[in-house]
Design brief:
heterodimer, A: alpha+beta, 17 helices, 63% helix, B: OB fold (Dihydrolipoamide Acetyltransferase, E2P), 2 domains, 5-stranded mixed barrel, 36% helix, elongated, disordered C terminus
């Protein structure tokens, strides 16, 4: 019953999306005051009800998974009666169909929210925006209903279910994909706003203000999703690395890069009414990157732990959607961009100028990551198999990333419109001195590679510079959004410091140890005390008991495991991590070698945790900015309402 | 810099500058990709036209039965990867991935050393019964075809 209810809700939602699109299109065609006005009033309610229906469909799927209703094919394929309830729930989106339903749900829910709340823009622009949103949504509804129906029945029902990939049975991973999806979908809203503004030629600061919370929200989710995903890869894969330039990681990084650029250019448009066409273009690019990301992950064109759907038909479907959306948006852009009037001017040395540099550098990095990700697919079409990894991405991206950091340090100190470097001379010199001092200090005391060296020095300079906008301002009266910027920029410096330290100072030890053997790694002394079998709900494992000491201090225990799951049968290495303020000790245990010796791999990773602290700070900065912006918007709306009331009273 | 540009001109200058940087980035990327992409070899290709020693490449094939041996340090293994035509000796130090056994497929990331041994930094083996390294899917088919040809001749 529940499955049928979910499917019906999904069909109804799709029908409403069609209504929303048609009503919107007719209204836009008929022009002002035409016969379409009546239809136009349908658009907002349609969007709201569509959001509710899609949410109902998703809730139905959650209930099916919670109850482990094995007469539903998706549940039988991806769940198991013996699984803990939280993983049963996560199983709802830990598969292709469920995750696409989640995508559609979040997107139509967001559409409903805009329809309900957004009143700043001209009504025609709103109708165009919601129609664009419905257009994007319809493609996904078609995808779900015709090729990935999550509510398909199984006859006869399965006896116990096939389980979920044990590598995915992890609390972090349970919430990782939805986080990224919220990000992707937020960018779809930004895309709809951009298309709506372009269609009705209303590329105004108000448009940027309406779009900005969605971009900010998407950006926060992407930031947190990438940060969490990177930590997951770090502790779950047991390889000691935290970023592999894996195509699936790139699929989440590319929308983030575009969203970061969009966020900054939308700020320029909102504050200064400049960079109009550029902001629209970035809105289109950001969503394109989300779609490309979805395509890469969902099409099965890549083999990876992330790729659930190895199904060429679905890949083709997503590719077709991608082509329609992006091709359509770019066509509209090409036709209309010329009619978007030039915004306000600014001189090269100004906050706008710095933000343009930031935007161009981010776009360049985006291009580099995109080319590196697609290159193996291109060459494979010609029968040559290659893989592209850190030796390509690190240096080539750094060429644009490092100069961008310098501009990021100075930009926030500059004034809008026109400024001179002379005015901020002392700040620039101070940051420059810090960078040079750190550079010289590290180069003198140790010999590390060039990129990490530059990274640490720039991190110090940027960290200092990130606080400089606070100078001479009353901290209590500083807008929340400015605090957000300060903290996010500081987060970039912190993450960079962690990444550079990890690649410069990591020490590794690989050995085959008998119980009782002792070894050193960095400042740690590690003893393998014993290896014992342990058992969990759906796995058994061999657990190494390590007693470790930091510089002769007290003994701490660590227990890395080599786990065997039985549904489906699979082996994983569970790394053990010991965190100190200044780094992490990372231990992995492998198989038993000859003569009762166990393979141990140990890393001492100084300051590696700063990578994720930095990511969290960036996300926190975004959150503060979002809260600050929304609060300001609400206050402004309240004031406007008060003024309107007073005017009415005066008239009466 | 302080000379105010006409609106049209500023827009043009901005667009051109952005375009130039992006084209520069693309050219740089294309150049770096040619140099840094690591190519995939099967043993017969690696024997026929070996990559330059030290260049990062990947080698895929079947771990030959009876070739796997653990060195005295307990963490270094040596084995031979073959594709039915040629054989390449491989050395690897590290924790051997799950389901890495003789007779199964493997993709090794690493480089050829001067003596003709492939030094692997990383081994990718089957993760579970559903996951096979992408390159090996192809290779198995090619192998199957080869086997079929051999037996039908």
């Amino acid at each position: 019953m529940i499955a049928e209810f979910g499917l019906a809700a999904l069909w109804l939602a799709a029908a409403l999306a069609a209504l929303q699109l048609i009503a919107g299109a007719v209204t836009l065609r008929s022009g002002q005051g035409g016969s379409g006005e009546v239809l136009g009033t349908l658009v907002r309610p349609a969007a709201i009800v569509q959001g509710v229906l899609a949410a109902a469909a998703f809730v139905a799927l959650l209930v099916l998974f919670l109850r482990t209703d094995l007469s539903v094919k998706l549940v039988a394929d991806n769940s198991h009666v013996a699984k803990p309830w939280i993983f049963k729930l996560a199983g709802a989106w830990g598969n292709h169909e469920g995750s696409m339903l989640l995508w559609v749900t979040v997107m139509s829910f967001a559409g409903g929210l805009i329809a309900l709340l957004e009143r700043r823009l001209p009504e025609r622009t709103m109708i165009a925006t919601l129609a664009a949103q419905a257009f994007v949504g319809l493609g996904f509804y078609a995808f779900l209903l015709f090729s990935s129906n999550p509510f398909e029945r199984l006859d006869p029902p399965a006896p116990e279910g096939l389980g979920l990939n044990p590598l995915l049975q992890d609390i972090g991973l349970a919430f990782h994909p939805p986080t990224l999806y919220f990000g992707y979908v937020g960018l779809s809203v930004a895309f709809s706003f951009a298309v709506g503004a372009l269609l009705t030629r209303q590329v105004t600061p108000d448009f940027a203000r309406a779009m900005r919370p969605w971009v900010l929200g998407a950006w926060i989710f992407l930031t947190l999703g990438i940060t969490a995903g990177s930590y997951w890869a770090y502790y779950e894969l047991g390889w000691g690395g935290w970023w592999f330039w894996d195509p699936v990681e790139n699929a989440s990084l590319m929308p983030w890069l575009a969203a970061t650029a969009l966020l900054h250019s939308a700020s320029v448009l909102a504050a200064r009414d400049a960079l109009r066409a550029w902001t629209i273009m970035l809105g289109v690019v950001a969503f394109s990157m989300s779609m490309i990301g979805t395509f890469l992950v969902r099409s099965g064109i890549l083999t990876s732990v992330h790729a659930f759907a190895v199904d060429p038909e679905r890949g083709t479907f997503i590719l077709a959607l991608l082509a329609i959306y992006i091709g359509g948006a770019l066509t509209v852009f090409a036709l209309r961009a010329g009619t978007v009037a030039e915004g306000q001017r600014f001189s090269a040395t100004s906050r706008e100028g710095a933000l343009v540099v930031n935007n161009v550098a981010l776009s360049a990095i985006l291009a580099i990551v995109l080319l590196g990700t697609l290159y193996p697919l291109l060459t494979e079409a010609f029968g040559v198999q290659v893989s592209v990894g850190p030796p390509y991405f690190n240096p080539v991206a750094a060429i644009f990333f490092l100069p961008m950091l310098l501009v990021m340090a100075v930009g926030p100190l500059l004034r809008w419109r026109r400024d001179s470097l002379g005015r901020v001379r002392s700040e620039v010199i101070l940051a420059g001195l810090v960078i040079i001092a750190v550079l010289a200090g590290i180069a003198f005391f140790s010999s590390i590679a060039l990129l990490p060296l530059l990274g640490i020095a720039l991190a110090a300079g940027v960290a200092l510079a990130s606080f400089m906008p606070l100078r001479g301002r009353s901290l209590r009266r500083l807008p929340l959004a400015t605090w957000g910027m300060v903290i996010a920029h500081l987060g970039v410096a912190v993450a960079l410091f962690g990444a550079a330290c990890d690649s410069a100072f990591t020490q590794e030890r690989l050995l085959a140890a008998r119980p009782g053997d002792t070894t050193d790694v960095g400042p740690w002394t590690v003893t393998l005390a014993a290896v014992e079998p342990v058992a969990g709900p759906n796995w058994t494992a061999l657990e190494g008991r390590l007693s470790v000491r930091y510089k002769g201090g007290p003994v701490t225990l660590m227990a890395p495991q080599s786990r065997n799951f039985w549904t489906p049968p699979q082996q994983t290495n569970e790394a053990a991590l010991l965190t100190r303020w200044n780094g992490q000790l990372y231990a992995v245990i492998g198989g038993e070698g000859e003569g009762e010796r166990w393979q141990l791999r140990l890393w001492w990773k100084p300051f590696v945790t700063f990578i994720w602290y930095g990511g969290a700070l960036i996300g926190l900065g975004g959150l503060l900015a979002l809260v600050g912006r929304v609060a300001t918007d609400l206050k402004r709306r309240h004031v406007r309402a008060q003024v309107a009331i007073r005017r009415e009273e005066r008239v009466a | 810099m302080s000379v105010p540009l006409k609106p049209k001109h500023q827009r043009l200058v901005l667009a051109l500058a952005a375009l130039l940087v992006l084209i520069g980035a693309a050219l740089l990327a294309a150049w770096a990709l040619r140099n840094q992409a690591s190519y995939f070899y099967v043993p017969s290709e690696m024997v026929e036209s070996p990559p330059a020693p030290g260049q990062a490449v990947r080698l895929g094939g079947m771990v030959e039965t009876g070739s796997l041996e653990t060195q005295a340090d307990g963490v270094t293994i040596r084995f031979v990867v073959g594709d039915g035509e040629a054989r390449v000796p491989v050395r690897f130090s590290g924790i051997v991935p799950d389901l890495f056994v003789e007779g199964s497929g493997v993709v090794a990331e690493g480089r050829l050393d001067a003596s003709g041994t492939f030094v692997a930094d990383n081994l990718l083996a089957k993760h579970d019964e559903n996951y096979v390294p992408r390159e090996l899917e192809h290779m198995n088919e090619a192998q199957k075809r080869a086997v079929v040809e051999e037996t039908t001749q």
